[in-house]
Amino acid sequence: MAYKALEVNGLAFDLLRSEDIRQGSLTGYGLLFVPGGWASNKMKALGDAGIEEIRRFVRGGGSYVGFCGGAGLSTLDGIGLLPIKRRPTKERVPSFSGPILLNTSQHPIWEGIAGRRFHAWWPSQFVVDRDVSVLATYGKALPESFSSDLNVGDTETHGDWAALERTYQINLDPRRLLNEPAVVEGRFGSGKVLLSLVHFDTPDDLNGAMVLKNLWRYLLKAGAMRAEGTIGDSSARSAPSPGRHASEGDRTAFIAPLESAVADLIDLGQRNFLWFWRNPLLLQWRRGVRGLEYCTLYSMVKELANLMAFQGRGVHAAGTFGKLERVRDFADKAKQLLVRERYAMQNAHITYERCDDPEIQALREELFSRSKSHGGLFKEILDDLDLLLYDVLICYRREGYDEINEDYLSGL
């Protein structure tokens, strides 16, 4: 989601992995942008060496921008760039998602914004020290938003948040978010740190796109347009080489069966009223099943299929694709799990982690482990997909992304 938002808005960036950061690759950059995702998984990937490299980078004058999980990474619960803690789950609204108004202060990142509507996707909540500047607080949650699987507008008109909170056994009322910090700024050593629990990289969000552009202008000094996590200068890209494009047969042999398997999985969930699409990249799912994992898998495989229809044969490593055959096995077992969960919902109160059915629990443990941030077969597949997608994107950017597939870019 972050990659596409930066690409479509023409913002300068290079892609770096945690292992690059561990090896000192932040040297020479002006800005480190860490997108959303589980902060705990980012910590594990960085390791002590990567964490210290980030701290050294910011302490020495580099800027750090974190969205959602990337914001959580920099708190005292993470690598400690700002004196901020994350509010305990029992004290916050853990499952809010969708459009919400912001109360903004005077700051360059808000220049040119038409209105105060933005998007949050299952954010944490901050407890902020007085040495940190609050650039925005949450305002009213808009009717199209959700708390868990409850539509906010419908619930406020016809429901009872207090009664539903007793049933769901979590905080649901989005009014609990009112005036809570949403965007903050502080310093670590000589560097600036700007953290947002709001996703300015949400698809089709014009306000968010304007904030992204403002962030780059604000945090990158004139001429210092190298920004990790963010697009390389398009003027430096070479035109694609003749004969470097994969044939339709290549795509069918390697990617199409996987794309079909995950598409069938998403279709099954829709047929069984377990989820629907909120935007081109994010599902809204029913309480009782996982959803983010499935739309992540679908989006990554779909992106690979789109890119590799035009990508060179050099990335077609047999070993990598052999491991990705497990996608189909995962999809088959996930379908079994989802149908069983669908039936279990009719008989009992279940969550993604709690269910009395031993067969459901066994499938869940095999596919995701008992970890909230996922594990099991899903994580093994995701790690392989991540490596392959990274290689394909790097190859694409080297060959000239815009010129290879203008129709695909226009669809973003």
Question: Can you describe what's shown?
Answer:
The chain has 412 residues and is an alpha+beta fold. The protein has 2 domains: 2-234, Class I glutamine amidotransferase (GATase) domain (Rossmann fold), CATH 3.40.50.880; 248-410, no CATH class. Helices cover 43% and strands 16% of the residues. It has helices spanning 2-8, 18-22, 39-59, 69-73, 152-158, 161-168, 206-219, 248-254, 256-271, 292-308, 318-324, 326-345, 358-368, 376-399, 401-404, 406-410; strands at residues 31-34, 63-67, 84-86, 96-104, 117-121, 126-128, 133-141, 146-147, 150-151, 181-188, 191-196, 227-228, 275-279, 282-285. The strands form 3 sheets. Strands 1, 2, 4, 5, 7, 8, 9, 10, 11 and 12 form a 10-stranded mixed beta sheet that branches. The protein has a two-stranded antiparallel ribbon with strand order 3-6. It has a two-stranded antiparallel ribbon with strand order 13-14. Helix 3 (39-59) links the parallel strand 1 and strand 2. The longest helix has 24 residues, at 376-399.
